[in-house]
Amino acid sequence: MPDDRPIALDEYPIHQAPLSMKHVATGDRNAYDRCIFHFVDHTGRALLVAGLGVYPNTGVIDAYATLRLGDTLHAVRASDALTDDRMNLSVGPLRITVDEPLRRFTLTCEADPADPDSLSYEISWTADFPAVWEPHHVQYRGDRLMLEGRRFVQAGGCSGVVRVGGEQILLTAGEWTGTRDRSWGVRPIPGEEGGRAADEHRPEGFHWLWIPARFDDRFVMVIAQEDAEGHRTLNEALLVRNGDRDVQLGWPHTDITYRSGTRHPERAVVHLTDQDRKPLELGVEVLASSPLAVGAGYPPATDWQHGSWQGRGWTDRRAYDLSDPAAHPMAAYGVIDHAARFTLGGRTGYGIFEHGTFGRHDPSGFTGYDSTAP
């Protein structure tokens, strides 16, 4: 018989439904609760991405870390059975500690005992700006709700050390930028037959931008999701400053310069509008790129995806050679996180230019899944 006794979290007045905190309020197998952290080297030499997620209705907890260093992507992934100790954010060698909610976090990756030169790190992430809500995210496939997410985003600084291949990389304050995203709700995980809806409601195209850009005295957040015709289904442009009310920056439009023969962005301009209706330009220069479908477990990864049951105590370490794009053909059909240098009104900042465009997208001139930039 399953153990259905109260858990520690049930002692606190935080319930949102007449259920134990062990359970979520939906029976949807795709219920999830997870986070992602980005650590951006201002020189563009390195980009570290790390995250952790729980999937209560499939009983899985997993985590990952990827380090882009030159043309090599070092990856650590771990998965295990979810326990009742929801405050313990650790899986295998990967751990996230909430030192002060919404303010300070410690991220740790232990080295492989059999290989001391394997990826490891100890990093402190500290918020420099308040967390802000992203738009309520909803997507349907036919009549079925496939995604409903509540998310917030935050920017800050980081310090610590990363070790790999005998090299020690220092994350020095002022030379690295940290961003993070926290989300929960319902989001597809592998293992479910899509049925008629998946067969008859295939999207012609999908275009996505998620852009947290941190400057010394402000933080800009831009989100845009569009269909094949360029119809905007998700939209946000915010300016965040400590002690001030968040400022909406209008309806963002983005001009992206792609590398010829690809959909790889090299630079971009995001056109915004201030409170006085004056135009603002957020300039983007891509420094380094980490495809989330390689190593990090995001669709359409072929070797491991979030929420998939790998058995108890599963850990996987590997290195990917990113010098040849043809070696990872599915990466182009997944979202890619680009470390970027941003400019805004004479200021220079750093953050993530997360980009994905698949299939037809009329505003970009892409006519189908095989279409690329001239």
Please report which band the strand proportion falls in: under 5%, 5-15%, 15-25%, 25-35%, 35-45% or over 45%.
Answer: over 45%
Total tally of structural domains: 1
Shape, per Cα inertia axes: globular
Can you tell me the CATH architecture? Beta Barrel
Poorly predicted runs: none
Could you estimate the helical fraction of the residues in percent?
Answer: under 10%
Relevant CATH superfamily: AttH-like domain
Q: Over all CA atoms, what is the radius of gyration?
A: 20 Å
Order of helix and strand elements from N to C terminus: EEEEEEEEEEEEEHEEEEEEEEEE
What structural class do you assign from the helix and strand content? mainly beta
Oligomer: single chain
- CATH first level: Mainly Beta
As for the CATH topology, it is AttH-like fold
- The helix tally amounts to 1
| N/C terminus separation | 61 Å
What's the average pLDDT? 95
Sheet of most strands = 14 strands, antiparallel
Q: Count of DSSP E strands?
A: 23
Question: Would you kindly provide a brief summary of this structure?
Answer:
The chain is an all-beta fold and 374 residues long.
